[in-house]
Amino acid sequence: MKNKINQILCMAAMSATVLTSCQTDFADINRDHRQPTEEELKMDNLNVGGFATAFEMSIFPVGSSGTGYVNDYQIPYTLGGACWMGYMAPSQNKWVGRGFPTYALKPWSQYTYNVMAGNAYRNWLDMKKRTTDDPAGFAVAQIIKVAAVHKATDTFGPIPYSKAGIEGTALAEYDSQEDVYKAMLKELDEAVQTLNREAHDVFPKYDIIYEGDYVKWCKFANSLMLRLAMRVVYANEALAKEYAEKAISNPNGVIEAVGDGATLCKGAGVSLKNPLVIINGSYNDARMGAEIASYMKGYNDPRLGAYFQKGTINNVSDYYGLRTNLPSTTAYLDREKISLLKVEDETPVYIIRASEVYFLRAEGSLRGWNMGDANDAKTFYEKGISASFEENGLSAGAATTYAANATAKPANFVDPINSQYNADAPSDITIKWQDGNFEKSLERIITQKYLAIYPDGQEAWSEFRRTGYPRIFKAVSVSTDCDVNGDNRPTRIPYSNDEYTKNLDNITKAVQLLGGADNGATRLWWDKKANK
Q: How high is the pLDDT of residue 362?
């Protein structure tokens, strides 16, 4: 029975269609019985739970069939952040001089916004209507909304937020990024208090993240609060400290156990596929990036084999990386021999990991904030490494040995096909914790976080803009349409031409809120660190 319900759920959720009950026998005879009526949806809470599933799938695009979700994942997340931060590089010449990999950002701007926020807002509005008498259900909806939409404000800056639920997103007014962040932090805090007060599981048969476990939802919300609090530290340190410490002290605390990390993979009888399988496979369009190759090979990182497959060039099998923004040259017709990603359908798509939370706590402790437990940056840093090794099926002993290495440094990048693309190591940072220098300690934390949260290029890109770490290579080829400095990577994505055509008054105000030109070089509100 549960599987049958979930089959109906998948049809309803993925189409995200508002269904109405039939009023006459004639209508009932002629209706499509493959689609459940509103009355049928109410049975077993499917009228709310089914839409919760669709909403969760808007945090990151995942799916069970077709390739629509794959394209939604590839453009913003693989060809965008993952390429810019050297997690991956496209293996086909069709991206040379166009699209995100070489900083031509405008053609995909509207598409990116729809993936990051448009779909989430539509689902959130539906969930808001359906949870008017369910405070705990609405609390979970608020957490899902923030988990999805914060990526949009981190990409564009000012976005529709406070008015999005009133006017929709097409002609909505924009909020400043500062106001969006203050609202998101407040909503997460309120959601945790509500879930703790209501104290019952939510949509257990339809929740593909935690199967309704409200305690885990609290941990997720607090962990997301900690991430967002740290994001604003250079713009408003008092706000950052307030909410970072609140995340630790709130009911149920933050994610600590690896098994409590928030993932999109399977749950409530629904199995979803990781989009990187197709991008890596039938699309044949992703290879190991040069930056992550430099760090992991230099550190002799045991996670390398969990992330990538060896390639074979000149009869030598090894892990080979590729610079992202290479020009189209005949010398690189062999780029397909570079290391493929190691990913399977059931590989989880992480929303937030336990390892990331420990690195956030390490940084908070470094800044003198109360991050709980021993409140020691070194301890949290080493716990972050240990959690990452566990997340990748590696032993605690291997993590301990790795964390104690005081000599290994990132390696020079050696292009296996064309030596003109060789590059000196981007950093000389070692692994073992050392006290005494704030910036060196911060670089260690962010570098190890970068290695732990792979392949979440969106989060890595945000942390790079916030802190200047990890250090990355200068661009090889830049074909920007919006003033991107290739050495610094895009600081944001500009608004789409559609907004200037259809929503001119509001987009004009949005650019004023941005405080700079609507291009790929203006820094966001939270991007305030000097001398990066």
A: 98
Kind and range of the H or E run holding 263: strand 262-264
Count of CB atoms situated within 10 Å of the CB of 271: 12
> What six digits make up the tokens of 399?
């993590």
Q: Is the dihedral of CA 78, 79, 80, 86 positive or negative?
A: positive
18: which strand partners?
Answer: none
For residue 5, what pLDDT is reported? 39
Closest C-alpha among 357, 350, 355 to residue 389: 355
- The DSSP line for 282-342 is TT---EEBHHHHHHHHHTT-TTHHHHB--EEETTEEE---B-SS----GGGTTGGGSPPB-
List the helix and strand counts (H, then E) for the chain: 23, 8
**CA nearest to 34, candidates 58, 54, 4:** 4
Give the Cα separation of 468 and 12 in Å (integer).
43
Angle between helices 46-56 and 2-15 (to 10 degrees): 60
Could you say which residues of the chain have pLDDT below 50? 1-34, 40-44, 167-169
CA distance 218 to 11: 29
Q: From CA 256, how far away is CA 360, in angstroms rounded?
A: 12
Element (H, E) at 129: helix 119-130
- Structure-token pair, residue 195: 């879930």
Q: What is the pLDDT of residues 306-321, one digit of tens each?
A: 999 999 998 899 999 9
The per-residue pLDDT for 333 is 60
CA–CA separation, 95 vs 86, rounded Å?
A: 15
Nearest to 262 by CA among 201, 210, 190: 210
Is residue 346 within 8 A of residue 216, CB to CB? The reply is no
Tokens, residue 508: 């004009």
Backbone angles phi, psi at 457, to 5 degrees: -65, -30
Kind plus residue range of the DSSP H or E element containing 88: strand 88-89
The residue among 402, 524, 525 whose CA lies nearest residue 452 is 402
Which has the closest alpha carbon to 351: 529, 198, 209, 232? 209
Handedness of CA 202, 207, 210, 211 (dihedral sign): positive
Write out the DSSP string of 191-213: HHHHHHHH-S--STTT-TTTTT-
Distance of CA 134 to the CA centre of its chain: 28
First to last CA, the chain: 57
**C-beta of residue 51 within 8 angstroms of C-beta of residue 13:** yes
Using an 8 Å Cβ cutoff, are 223 and 253 in contact? no
Q: Are β-strands 88-89 and 262-264 bridged in parallel, bridged antiparallel, or unpaired? A: unpaired
- Region of 433 on the Ramachandran plot (φ > 0 left; ψ -120 to 50 alpha; else beta): beta
Q: Are 276 and 68 in contact (CB under 8 A)?
A: no
Determine phi and psi for 317, rounding to 5 degrees: -95, 125
Per-residue pLDDT at 47: 59
Distance CA 127, CA 430 (A): 47
Q: Is residue 319 within 8 Å of 288, Cβ to Cβ?
A: yes
Q: Locate 22 and state its tokens.
A: 């039939």
| pLDDT the model gives residue 37 | 52
Eight-state DSSP code of residue 473: P
